[in-house]
């Protein structure tokens, strides 16, 4: 019997053929930690009595969750990270550089066929590049920093075949929200989800990152796209290493195979306080909105800002809505400035904050008040996720968020795009 993409990548990295269910120890291609997890990883690493990271060219630290620092205690943790990076020679992305899950692929650290871990649950984002990436705990990361290896249980795989074309006003975020609603929050727990089908060729790389980013919200260990020319061009323009394209065997075993035709899909919204409480936008249209957030590691890329700007151009955000825009990286911000996107957003009434994660994780830069409703392009809407357990978070695409910011209530973006 053939092997899935996950089985093949893990086999390559432990130098023997393995199958789902086996426990393996694998060599790693890249490691990452952000400022919410790196301090504990550094502390654990030092307690192990090790002097040097296994390979400084294979590790990055990113200051993005509290960036710039809102507190003295956080500033001291940032200083710890800066000192460690300087001493060890690992890559450091400091305040304002952007979100870890944008920077790791954007700066060319990874390529097709890699095995990557990060001390952040949305490390699965990188699977858009036909690689296996997953989030781990800080102590596991510390062990990997020492050895360059980590243990894995080879996951069973689910195959999702995407067909048709996304209708106007419907985007990758709507597609992944729809899938999460179908699978539920734990329907793919510890599975690798493979994406293939005719629709994939139509999806931009930004769209693929959005989908891979959120597979963890259905419990998945990894989300992996099959590679095509678009993916290869994207990665070879950034990473100097030769990509190793990994395709599943025709007779690979899948725990489940789902075929989804997206032709009739409508804009989707996840209701508070669970990501899998997904409904069509018309079921929640009219709900009052106090704050709208465009950004995060899910939807803060250039394409996302462009979609919102197309809706907001020449219009004004509803007077009682705070519209917060967070580009995913410094590069994205500069590109958006050069294309006039930022000007459109600011003229519409947006508040621009530094590239980072602040509003999404509720550390700063947009914590809502008690009872307020927020619509966000983020990946999670758990109670308290944005820093206030008494606020309500709705998740949607950049288009739906922009339309809702204009209307002052949850709105169908197709109405604005038609105009």
Automatic annotation (TrEMBL):
Domain of life of the native organism: Bacteria
An example molecular function term from Gene Ontology annotations: metal ion binding
Leading EC class: lyase
Gene3D superfamilies with a match to the protein in the record: Aconitase, domain 3
Catalyses which reaction(s): (2R,3S)-3-isopropylmalate = (2S)-2-isopropylmalate
Annotated InterPro entries: Acnase/IPM_dHydase_lsu_aba_1/3, Acoase/IPM_deHydtase_lsu_aba, Aconitase_4Fe-4S_BS, Aconitase_4Fe-4S_dom, HAcnase/IPMdehydase_lsu_prok, Homoacnase/IPMdehydase_lsu, IPM_dehydratase_rel_enz, IPMI_cat
Pfam (any one): Aconitase
Residues where [4Fe-4S] cluster binds: 297, 357, 360
Statement: the UniProt record of this protein carries the keyword Metal-binding: yes
Cofactor-binding details, from the entry: Binds 1 [4Fe-4S] cluster per subunit.
Enzyme Commission number(s) from the entry: 4.2.1.33
Functional pathway: Amino-acid biosynthesis; L-leucine biosynthesis; L-leucine from 3-methyl-2-oxobutanoate: step 2/4
Record GO biological process: L-leucine biosynthetic process
Cofactor: [4Fe-4S] cluster
NCBIfam families, sorted: hacA_fam (TIGR01343), IPMI_arch (TIGR02086), PRK00402.1 (NF001614)
Family: Belongs to the aconitase/IPM isomerase family. LeuC type 2 subfamily.
Protein role: Catalyzes the isomerization between 2-isopropylmalate and 3-isopropylmalate, via the formation of 2-isopropylmaleate.
Protein's name in the database: 3-isopropylmalate dehydratase large subunit
Taxonomic placement: Bacteria, Bacillati, Actinomycetota, Actinomycetota incertae sedis, Candidatus Hakubellales
